[in-house]
Amino acid sequence: MKPVGITCIAWEEARILESGKISVRQFTILVFLIAVGDSILILPAIPAAEAKQDAWLSGILGLLTGLLVVYLIGTVGRLYPRLNLIECNAKIFGAWFGTIASLLFLGYIYYNAVGLVRIISDFMATQIMPETPIDAVHILFLSIIFMSLRLGLETIARASEIFLPWFVLLFLGLVLFLVPQVDIEQLHPFFANGIKPVLRGSIFSATNPYIELVPLLMIFPYVNRTEKLRKHLVAGALFAGIVLVIMIALSILVLGADFTSRNMYPSYTLAKQISIGHFIERLEVIMAIMWIITVFVKASIFTYLLQLGLAQLLKLRDTRVLALPLVFILAGSATAFAPNITSFNYATTSYWPFFDMTFGLALPVLLIGVHALRRRGGA
Questions:
Q1: What is the percentage of the chain residues whose pLDDT exceeds 90?
Q2: Fewer CB within 10 Å: C terminus or N terminus of the chain?
Q3: Neighbouring C-beta atoms of residue 130, cutoff 10 Å
């Protein structure tokens, strides 16, 4: 049966754009680091603002909801395991509607990449290098992103394998050092304001870490074994969720719900509380390194997928020709995306979760539904 909206020649050309392969283990590591991503630093403040001391319950509810969405995303990947999402759109929706859906999806990835560049620049310029112009931070960070774009998917995946043990070691050290600061009374009383604040707090807890994994559908065909990818996708998200729930709980237990909700980077402030014998203190560099690792991996993958998707739609033979233009566009867009930190906070807490749900929940449901209708109609 002849494929709808995309020819076999087009499929073959798409294969040429990315000839590399990554292992299932590398894929799971990428899922874990991307899900942790920017959430490990900023996530505790948002459910705490809604649910107060019950924010940890919002984190758990967000994890359970997020895993269901991740399973749905994995189901989309199983429809055509040899095709990435750009090709799936064309095959399921047809040439015209598939192209429109792909352009909108690439716009979603683009805005995510811009947001990641913006947030790491804000963090570096306000917390670590306050006298450094934010544009200089943009250039430094995007220079590394440019290198990852030129080297390709395999190199990013191998770098993630190297980063993972360091992340785990630093995270365990952070938790261990914070145990003496824990105050169980900070969690009381339970459900002081009812269940509704917990539900509202769970929305962002589900969207930012888990629903934003939908761009990984672009790399499903480039994993060595595709038959069990859904299981590994869910596993990576689960491990990331455990880390994030622990960070939310620690923020409440150590800082308190009120201080956590009013702090832009509660996890970073949390690390500042470490004090053992007045000798081991101010270990916030641990959190900074962990966050830079996860944001770098997430930003690199998202920018790479944007490069790959654009190259497919433009029918280019080499994705690397887009690397430099994309870096310049991201550098220019990062400031325009949010002129100040107030507007950035408004974007992330007001409409961004619904933006995520449009592409991470509605699009997969639509793909599965249209695919089922086409099979029933014999198309």
A1: 37
A2: N
A3: 8
